[in-house]
Specification:
Layout lengths: L5 H8 L5 H8 L2 E8 L5 H7 L6 H4 L5 E6 L2 H18 L4 E7 L2 E6 L4 E6 L13 E5 L6 H8 L13 E6 L6 H6 L6 E2 L19 E8 L9 H9 L3 H8 L7 E3 L21 E6 L7 E7 L4 E8 L4 H14 L4 E5 L4 H10 L5 E3 L9 H14 L9 H8 L1 E5 L5 E5 L6 H10 L23
Parallel strand pairs: 1-7, 1-9, 2-5, 2-6, 6-7, 8-9, 11-14, 14-15
Antiparallel strand pairs: 3-4, 4-5, 10-16, 11-12, 12-13, 16-17
């Protein structure tokens, strides 16, 4: 096998590793599992590292390399910069590039092939012998995708060398990816904390092994702006902060809302014409309840609560309009998922100017997740308060977060309680600022006259 001048390659591509990347490069292993927080440099590592990265494959002969992610969209995080590097830095080596969904492929004049694959259908990830495998967000990959499909592709033969693999991602609970991480009995588990002056790779160098596991936080990338990182974590619930920033393997199920009882104070209030209000409505369907919650924007206190069911839609609309008028026509949101769209249109016809909020499940872009995360932050930090409303408190106490085997976050109630009150409160909170405004009326926005 041709030898690579790592120093020369580093200079050519401009590789400047951070501390944890140097430590990871220094460890020789067939399989490397890198668990790290957001923006820590995981993708850059598997792309550019002269010792472990995919770019190395571009200048080596007879390589067969796969980039695998839970779906095609996630493969693009590595694929797009890869083809940009290939075209700009190694154009004479590239024979042909296919760049269409389902057919992401690079062929070189050195008889090397690099492909990007989706893990959505594990049964299709078979039938080849790979020299290298790179798996992004491996904790979201289906368990059988690795054990039944990908692992056999790395089995060497007499005429083919044994394949290597690198896994990167943030944890998604203690699922099968956590078990994989534990294959290394002595992982590098943030041995240096946040003190980057101690990032000496030679201290952590170990003998060559089959499995090497690493865990680093977002803070361990010294090139990342700490000010920007603090802005990112400011509005994160504790659970998400630990998992996404500190890269901790959290338990697969837990209570979502912390500090609930410290938020219990005060009583409902009548309308104050000098205050602004926010309204949240979760519509009852079948056996569930319709819940109306109004929050004073000037104090972040719940001033009105109503919960009812077995009432006709006409009566529900009337009750909602009464509360809407009672609190000075507040801003706010109504759950418009499904039939909620039609119901909201009818409310608009009645003069109720609330906005729709649809629940869409789509990973990090899940609208429900964003809604619940904001409510969790407000409760944890004591930014809202509410009277002792037993059903509301019971629902908050029994609202749970579960991480499935595939690494997806699923919200659900624990026991006999529903989540009607939780969702209404979250919808009312969605319209709140971090800090209550000091006065009701702000200065009007004036636009100068313009001639067209």
């Amino acid at each position: 096998m041709p030898k690579i001048d790592y120093q020369r390659l580093s200079e050519y591509i401009g590789w400047k590793p951070n501390g944890w990347q140097r430590i990871t490069e220094d460890q020789e292993a067939r399989f490397k599992i890198i668990v790290a927080g957001r923006r820590s440099g995981k993708t850059k590592y598997v792309l550019e590292s002269p010792k472990d990265g995919i770019l190395q494959g571009l200048i080596l002969p007879n390589e067969y390399i796969w980039i695998v992610a839970p779906n095609y969209d996630l493969t693009q995080r590595i694929w797009i910069p890869l083809i940009q590097f290939a075209r700009s830095k190694f154009p004479s080596i590239i024979k042909r590039i296919w760049d269409t969904k389902g057919n992401f492929r690079i062929e070189t004049h050195l008889n090397t092939i690099i492909e990007a694959k989706s893990g959505e259908e594990p049964q299709k990830l078979v039938g080849v012998g790979l020299t290298r495998l790179y798996v992004d967000e491996f904790a979201l990959l289906k368990k059988k995708a690795w054990f039944e499909s990908l692992r056999p592709t790395l089995v060497g033969t007499q005429d083919k060398k044994i394949g290597k693999g690198i896994f990167i991602g943030t944890p998604k609970g203690k699922n099968w990816a956590y078990d994989l991480w534990l294959n290394d009995p002595s992982p590098v588990d943030r041995p240096f904390g946040l003190k980057h002056e101690n990032l000496n790779p030679k201290i952590h160098k170990r003998k060559k092994k089959e499995w090497a596991s690493f865990r680093f936080t977002s803070y361990d990338n010294e090139y990342l702006s700490k000010g920007e990182l603090e802005k990112l974590v400011k509005d994160m619930p504790e659970f998400e902060y630990k998992q996404e920033i500190l890269a901790e393997f959290e338990e697969t199920a837990e209570q979502v809302f912390k500090n609930v009882y410290n938020c219990i104070k005060g009583k409902p209030h009548k309308y104050n014409p000098d205050h602004l209000y926010s309204m949240g409505i979760d519509l009852g369907r079948k056996s569930s309840y319709t819940v109306i919650i109004v929050i004073d924007k000037m104090t972040h206190h719940v001033v009105y609560f109503d919960r009812f069911r077995v009432v006709s839609w006409d009566i529900q609309k009337k009750r909602i309009k009464e509360v809407y008028e009672k609190y000075g026509q507040p801003t706010g949101y109504v759950d418009s998922t499904g039939l909620g769209d039609v119901f909201l249109e009818e409310l608009h016809d009645m003069g109720v100017g609330l906005d729709p909020y649809q629940f869409v499940e789509a990973g990090y872009t899940s609208t429900k997740r964003k809604l619940i995360d904001k409510l969790a932050v407000f409760i944890e930090s004591g930014k809202i308060s509410f009277p002792k409303i037993d059903i509301l408190i019971n629902e908050l106490e029994r609202y749970g977060r579960e991480i499935t085997e595939s690494g997806k976050i699923k919200y659900k109630t624990i026991g006999k309680y529903s989540s009607d009150c939780v969702m209404a409160l979250a919808l009312a909170v969605w319209d709140l600022e971090d800090e209550p405004p000091q006065e009701k009326v702000s200065k009007p926005i004036l636009f100068p006259n313009q001639e067209f």
